[in-house]
Amino acid sequence: MKRGWQITNATRRTDNGFVTNVTCVYAQTAFNHIEKISYTIINDYNGLDDDFIPFEDLTHKKMLDWCFKVMGSEKKKLETKIKNKHKEFVSNRDRQQLLVDGLPY
Questions:
Q1: Rounded Cα–Cα distance for residues 92 and 86 (Å)
Q2: What is the distance between the alpha carbons of residues 14 and 7, in angstroms, rounded to a whole number?
Q3: Long-range pairs for 6-9 at CB < 8 Å and ≥24 separation?
Q4: For the residues 42-59, what does the mean pLDDT come to?
Q5: Alpha-carbon distance 85 to 92, whole Å?
Q6: pLDDT tens string 17-32
Q7: 8 A C-beta contact, residue 22 and residue 63
Q8: Which of 22, 84, 94, 95 is most buried, by the most CB atoms less than 10 A from its CB?
Q9: pLDDT of res. 96
């Protein structure tokens, strides 16, 4: 089973590379099943400041940190939601495997 956060898109201004939107996805997979949820943060543009990082210098970790900071406590709620949906799917699948329809003749 795998689970984790991934940056799936970033929108930036063409004039200076300022990132206006970052989309991240939390997913949990096992076997041939995936549950996922996406979250987009929006950065208001008020000009460049001393903390500006050029687009070319951004890392996956830095953009995830931005997302997590904006999400706050919502991050844990999203992870729990996906974990529960995945657990429900696996439980239902396992229960179905215990039952087989058919007749002996």
A1: 10
A2: 20
A3: 7/60, 7/63, 7/64, 7/67, 8/38
A4: 91
A5: 11
A6: 999 999 999 998 877 7
A7: yes
A8: 22
A9: 64
Tokens 């939390």 label which residue?
A: 26
Residue 19 has what pLDDT?
Answer: 95
Strands 33-42 and 19-30: antiparallel
> Taking a C-beta distance cutoff of 8 angstroms, is the pair 43, 19 a contact?
yes
Q: Which residues pair with 9 in a beta bridge?
A: 23
- What tens digit of pLDDT does each residue of 71-98 get? 999 999 999 999 898 888 877 776 666 6
d(CA 51, CA 69): 15
Convert 6-22 to b/e letters by CB count within 10 Å (16 or more is b).
ebeeeeeeeeeebbeeb
CB-facing half-sphere around the CA of 70: CA atoms within 13 A: 16
